[in-house]
Amino acid sequence: MLNETKEILVIGASGKTGRRLVRRLRGAGERVRAASRSGEVRFDWTQPTTWLRAVAGASAVYLIAPADPAAANDFVSQAVQSGVGRFVALSGRGIDKIDQDFSPSMVGAEQAVRDSGVEWTIIRANNFNQNFDEDLWHQPLIDGRLALPMGATPEPFVDAQDIADVAAALLTENGHHGQVYDLSGPHALTFAEAVTTIAKAAGRSVQYVELTPEQYRTELLAEGYSADDATALNAMFAGMRAGYLAQPTDAVRRILGRDPIDFDTYVARAATAGAWQ
Ligand SMILES: NC(=O)c1ccc[n+]([C@@H]2O[C@H](COP(=O)([O-])OP(=O)(O)OC[C@H]3O[C@@H](n4cnc5c(N)ncnc54)[C@H](OP(=O)(O)O)[C@@H]3O)[C@@H](O)[C@H]2O)c1
């Protein structure tokens, strides 16, 4: 049982999942430290001097992976010494099957919490809905062309709000120690279908273009992505094309007792908020 008078440290608190998690936890009356480089609590993975102050007094931590896997290990050790008794780490679905090029950082963060000697739970999420309005695929949609090497394999995109709600439950409820949860949305759809849905709701003309992995790499490099990022993204799409992430899971329903948010609901809300205007 965690000391309920203590605080929860949310790393990446200004990001897609962290922002929603902070709101959810505070809404439930939890005491939260919202941490990032620019956040209420200053925390920088590249500056270990910021770690201890951020974590001192916290009993539980929401961990999103640092670029450097060694940093996750060092931070987790410090956090445990400082009294943290529970970690919830965000990772990617299929990480155990996809080529290691995909994300050494998430592999490292998973290992760090598994080795922590205290309670840990890992969330392995499908691609987020919010990648279409807050991240990687937003600008291409605005530009009218989303081009990916995905083929016809469907993806059960998961909503960042569902990840936040699940993380809040795992951080505050008992019974999840040592669990790895694959989190998806309720239905799988192709990227072509996702683009059609968004284009219709946004009232824009957007084209989905199928690329070969080589063409995708060339486009990423031309857009300014690093060679490592291009390799990682191609590894991710290879795993997705292979179908490792394609089946919807029931984890959101099992943990929260409600259905996950479906893609149409996400699109309607984001379009109303002006995401693609
Ligand atoms: N997007 C997906 O579909 C997907 C699916 C599965 C897993 N994931 C994993 O989810 C994680 C990202 O989570 P997210 O999408 O919620 O976050 P996000 O939207 O990518 O935001 C990143 C957060 O990290 C903070 N940050 C960036 N650099 C930092 C540094 N050097 N030190 C401390 N904080 C730093 C940022 O805030 P500041 O700029 O203020 O520091 C921000 O709060 C990644 O590990 C990703 O691989 C993503």
From TrEMBL:
InterPro entries referenced in this protein's UniProt entry, alphabetically: Ergot_Alk_Oxidoreductase, NAD(P)-bd_dom_sf, NmrA-like
Domain NmrA-like: 5-228
Pfam families per record: NmrA
Gene3D superfamilies given in the database record: NAD(P)-binding Rossmann-like Domain, UDP-galactose 4-epimerase, domain 1
Name of the protein in question: NmrA family protein
Organism: Micromonospora sonchi
